[in-house]
Amino acid sequence: MRMPAPIRLRELIRTIRTARTQAEEREMIQKECAAIRSSFREEDNTYRCRNVAKLLYMHMLGYPAHFGQLECLKLIASQKFTDKRIGYLGAMLLLDERQDVHLLMTNCIKNDLNHSTQYVQGLALCTLGCMGSSEMCRDLAGEVEKLLKTSNSYLRKKAALCAVHVIRKVPELMEMFLPATKNLLSEKNHGVLHTSVVLLTEMCERSPDMLSHFRKLVPQLVRILKNLIMSGYSPEHDVSGISDPFLQVRILRLLRILGKGDDDSSEAMNDILAQVATNTETSKNVGNAILYETVLTIMDIKSESGLRVLAINILGRFLLNNDKNIRYVALTSLLKTVQTDHNAVQRHRSTIVDCLKDLDVSIKRRAMELSFALVNGNNIRGMMKELLYFLDSCDPDFKADCASGIFLAAEKYAPSKRWHIDTIMRVLTTAGSYVRDDSVPNLIQLITNSVEMHAYTVQRLYKALLDDISQQPLVQVASWCIGEYGDLLVSGQCEEEEPIQVSEDEVLDVLEGLLVSNLSTPVTRGYSLTAIMKLSTRFSSLNRIKKVVSIYGSSIDVELQQRAVEYNALFKKYDHMRPALLERMPIMEKTATNGPSETVQTNGETDSTILDTKHLPSISQPASQANDLLDLLGGNDVVPIIQTTVPTKPASAGGELLDLLGDLSLTGGPTPTPASSVPMSQPPFLLDGLTSQPLFNDIAAVIPPMTAYNKNGLIIEFTFERSNPNPNIAVITIHATNSTEADMTEFVFQAAVPKTFQLQLLSPSSNVVPAFNQGSVTQVIRVLNPQKQQLRMRIKLTYTHKGSPVQDLAEVNNFPPQSWQ
């Protein structure tokens, strides 16, 4: 029994559009798909074309239609043009090179490429150019190349686009199409010209040889572009009064590639680019598209300076356009060119700053980035005023980036230290919650180094603290400064502005208020407690400070509790050390780590000063102390080793002093890399007793010593041993001797190892290497080598000899195998 004729595509569309719900539409689609499947099973050739067309419509709606793939192949093999058209369309939509079915089409496409009808050939070219795999492209490239040489413009334009796809899939076939490209630009048909330029662009982008070969076509391309600009009205190619803007854009893009880095080609196209820039109508979007492409070409080639200024002026006009897309494009382009043509972009500074007030967030972000790029020493005050105003009113999403940009610009171009400090404090008061983590230590470093501004800064920060304690970075910096320079605040020594009258109790009230405030984070409370502790050496209210510190010895916050317990210990057991520990911080500098390319900033969360290390010997510590030291060094920030000076007492352990010094910013001395964290035991207080017990246990295996450095009378020898608890740790003891007639003073030894190792550099025995080999300086290095790789080390030696500073670098690569295997 013959099935009834299936409904037409038009009827199916009408039926589906009547569906009121998604479920109703799905039911209609499923019903129709079932009917189409039945028709396919019965090999119904009469209505196959109609069914595949309906299937493609369902595919466009998002429903599965893969079961029609083979039917598309059957339609392609048909002799009827209508069948082929739907078959090829189905193949382009339902097939891709990931499915093996597409390979069955290769023979059909080959036959159709040689068909007597140009429309059938066009269908085959379109399909191959859309979804042809690399295997198909290899098999059919010859036919495409043949059609590229034909005189039929309808086929040539399709063959050119198909050739682009072939080159993308199989780049080595590029040379096959080279002879066919010779006459492509002589074609009068704009469609062929357009596709030819696309083909040439693809070849130039993929092959430097092709780029050099096609540079000789620049005069011809310039001539075509000139004819397009000068030609009269042509209804066939006119778009909003401009002759074939699509072809113009494509030619400009190709000229950009050909002229990049080539003086002769750039010279040949300078005049035509100037003509395009001055003659193109800007009232319509079409003209703006051509001008934008012209600007990009001018900026990419080696163009004349006047032409570049003209291009930037075009972008400046774009900034005044009502269309947001054009303004965004202009800002993005100016951002790319600001480094090379800074002065030309500066002329449009006021327009760019006005864009900060735009309602569109994308434009505001680009304008902000460009504004920071325009900041220099001459306009820093005016630009910062605008950017600070923007920071006040901008959305929260912008505040972090804006604050960071202001910090960087102020650091680079600040006209004075007072202006620098005022600017950063303004940022902290308006957007403190959004600044990045490194802003606090950076500002602390700036304040520390500005010695003459200490009284002014601490007074400003104290007043800011009275107004608002919600901005945590501001509160942290203020707490640090009050702890460091509280005596200057109370004494009223500020010369830059009228000093305020404040008592010790008022200052302590503010800091205690921070400790109990719900707005304070745990880090802020740590800053406040440490500031109160520092004031014990600057204020006379010692009993009140002791009481506050003791209260927090039982705090629920472990970090705060630990600080308080250690500070209590300073008051009770080590009161003789407290004044030295809580001295003012010295000037802090950004110091290089022992890694070859890394830098480290001095830690902002500084609680105390460095102990005096000039004239006291270093102390060997027991093994548990080394573990605590490794724990101290774990993490991202590198903390240089400090040479501490304390009386020698009987042996007990060492974690607490290291914890006590845990947030010191330690500068000076050798700088180690971060070491891995080691589980820490809970020993008694370190200062209860120290011993000269060796840090590491010797092992039986003997590792031969080596000479690592021998120059200018200075000899550095390495001796080796293994750490008993961890065989992956090599312990290297350096012995520095001096054979000259004068002492080597201020001697510092530093070392760096590759990233696969971890290195810890302990304190040296002295910083003076005696003359005539009458003594030596020793220092212990621990190297963790978990992967048992060959040890390599770079060393840096710094010392003063006969009044002259000496600095030298050396590579040590000849370590004995026993030291690292």
Automatic annotation (TrEMBL):
It is a peripheral membrane protein. It holds the Pfam family Adaptin_N. It is found in: Cytoplasmic vesicle membrane; Endomembrane system; Golgi apparatus. Keywords: Cytoplasmic vesicle, Golgi apparatus, Membrane, Protein transport, Transport. InterPro entries: Adaptor_Complx_Large_Subunit, AP1_complex_gsu, ARM-like, ARM-type_fold, Clathrin/coatomer_adapt-like_N, Clathrin_a/b/g-adaptin_app_Ig, Clathrin_app_Ig-like_sf, GAE_dom. GO terms for cellular component: AP-1 adaptor complex. Its main location: membrane. It comes from the Eukaryota. Residues 701-816 form the GAE domain. Coiled coil: none annotated. One of its GO terms (biological process) is vesicle-mediated transport. Belongs to the adaptor complexes large subunit family. This is AP-1 complex subunit gamma. It comes from Cyprinus carpio carpio.
